[in-house]
Every structure is written in structure tokens, then in C-alpha cells.
Amino acid sequence: MANVGKRKTFSIEDKVQFIRKLQNGESQSAICKEFSLSKSTVATIWKNRDCIISTYEKNINRCKRLRKAEKENVEEALFKWFTLQRSRNLPVTGAILQAKANEFAELFGEKSFVCSNGWLDRFKKRHNIRSGKVVGEAANVCSSDINHWMENVWPDIIRNYDEKDIFNADETVLFYKLTPNQTLKFKGEKCVGGKLSKVRITILVCANMNGSEKQKLTVIGKSQKPRCFKNVKKLPMDYKSNKKAWMTSDLFQKYLRQWDKELAKKKRKSFY
Predict the structure, then answer these.
(1) Distance (Å, rounded) from C-alpha 100 to C-alpha 77?
(2) DSSP letter string, 151-188
(3) DSSP bridge pairs for 219
(4) CB atoms within 10 A of CB 78
(5) Exposed/middle/buried for residue 38 (C-beta within 10 Å: 0-12, 13-18, 19+)
(6) Domains along the chain with CATH numbers
(7) Contacts of 30 (CB under 8 A, 6+ apart)
(8) Comparing C-alpha atoms, which of 56, 60, 80, 103 is closest to residue 198?
(9) What is the dihedral of CA 16, 21, 25, 28, to 10 degrees?
(10) Among 173, 164, 148, which Cα is nearest to 247's?
């Protein structure tokens, strides 16, 4: 029995390549020989060239839109986060913004995204973000919405809890190798800065409403066994690690489950 050759299949990118070669003056015979094609296959591709190119360009534009949308997700989340921090009068540096942007990118599954200095500069220009000095006097952040929530919503939420059983937690980042952004200098001397360190640890702090109880700090670093923390398990904190030194949903869930077990042993009901 004669061997029947497998029918070759070509991607739309391959077909566009054949069409471009024909448009550039190459003969059908040359293309048949180069890619081991039959003359009828090449003729069919050429006959349907307009449809093939149109489909190819639509797919290319769609991919571009998807990549743009993914970056827009990161940008939108970062802008909302930045707006929230500034509404709280919390200082935000460029290094913190970059770390947060990369964190959002990982959250959205945008593996190719890296918050470079160039991307950060463009982000700041797009949203009119400028560098400024932090002043000591706090701004007045009261508003009718906040007052309404505190007077009408909050009391209903905590009605069945004592102040000692109401807890609040938040995380903060310590860039412990970051150098000061100001220096004493001689008159007329130029100040030339180096590259800002992005080495960090994340710290989770938690305390109850009346301040009578504080949870142990949870510190998250990159190294599983950091040399600077000898006998880390004996320190008055819980140390965790991952490659980004970030608080992840998995770490936070483990934190809550462990605390819930401790509360259950004491038969204690808390609001968190």
C-alpha cells in the first residue's frame, strides 16, 4: 500500500507570509519548493488573500487591545490605591508605587509587566502626580459621608461587640536600605543621588479598639532563614517569607485561621 502523506496545516501567520512573498514578486513555484507546498494550495491561499489578511489584522489588533487592557487594569488599580493613600495623608514614594504596581500586575496575571522607571514617569505625567514635601500639619479629612457612616452605619456593625473584641489590622512596607532623600551640603555643591534601594520587608500590625491588646507583629521577608535573624522563631514576632516579601492572600488566610483557633480555645467572639 502506498504511503499517504499527512496533510499539512498552516497557521494564519504562515499564510500571510506566503502572500507577502507573492506580493513581493516571488513565483508560486519557488514558494512551493521552499515550503513543500502543492501548487493548488498556494493558488487557494492567493485566491483568498484579502480574507486571510483581514482576519490576521483583526487578531493582531485584538491582541494589542488585550495587552493594553491588562496594563490599563494595573494602571487603574494603582491610581485608585494612590488616591486612597493620599486621601489618608499617607506619604507615597516612587519606590512604593513601583512595588505596588508590580504587586497588582501579579494579581492580574500580567507576567510580562514590569514597572520600570520610564513607566512610572509616564504614569505620574498622565495623572499629574508631582513630588512634594510632607508637612507636619494634617489636612482636614472630615466629610459628610464619613460622619454619616460613623453615626449611622458603624454603631450597627459593632453593636454586639465590646471594644476589646474589635480589632483592626493593616500592613506597611519598610524599605530598610532606603537612603535619606535630603542631605547637608556645601554651598554651591551639586547633590547627586544614587539608585533607590527597593529591598523591603512587609509588616502586618493588629490591635484592638481600646488598645488593651496587640497581636504579635507578622514580618514578611524574602529569605526563609535570614542571617540577620538568629533563632528567628524565638523572636517576639511571626516571621514569614516569599520571593517578593509581600503579604499574599494565602499568608493572610493562614494568619486568620491560626488566630481563629486561638479565639475558639478562649471561646471568644471578635470582630475583625
Answers:
(1) 9
(2) IIIHHHHSTTS-GGGBEEEEEEEE-TTPPPS-----TT
(3) 203, 239
(4) 22
(5) exposed
(6) 12-58 (1.10.10), 72-127 (1.10.10.60), 162-179+195-271 (no CATH)
(7) none
(8) 103
(9) -90
(10) 173
Residue with cell 491588646: 213
Q: What are phi and psi of 207, to 5 degrees?
A: -150, 160
* One-letter amino acid for residue 175 of the chain: F
Closest CA to 255 of 171, 184, 186: 171
DSSP class of residue 136 equals S
User: At 1, is the pLDDT very low, low, confident or very high (cuts 50, 70, 90)?
Assistant: very low
Output helix, strand, coil percentages for the chain, rounded to the nearest 5: 45, 10, 40
- 143, pLDDT greater than 90: no
Helix (H) or strand (E) holding 58: helix 49-87
Q: Sorting pLDDT into bands at 50, 70 and 90, what band is 202?
A: very high
So what's the pLDDT on residue 187? 59
Number of other residues whose CB lies within 10 A of the CB of residue 97 = 19
CA separation, residue 58 to residues 12, 51, 52, 89, 236 (Å): 12, 11, 10, 46, 59
Residue with cell 454619616: 148
What are the DSSP E strand ranges found in the chain? Answer: 167-174, 201-208, 217-221, 237-241
pTM for this predicted structure:
0.44
Answer for the pair 18, 45: CB distance below 8 angstroms, yes or no: yes
Pairing of β 217-221 and β 201-208: antiparallel
**What b/e readout covers 183-221, taking b as 16+ CB neighbours within 10 angstroms?**
eeeeeeeeeeeeeeeeebbbbbebebbeeeeebeebbbb
CA 244 – CA 85 distance, rounded (Å): 22
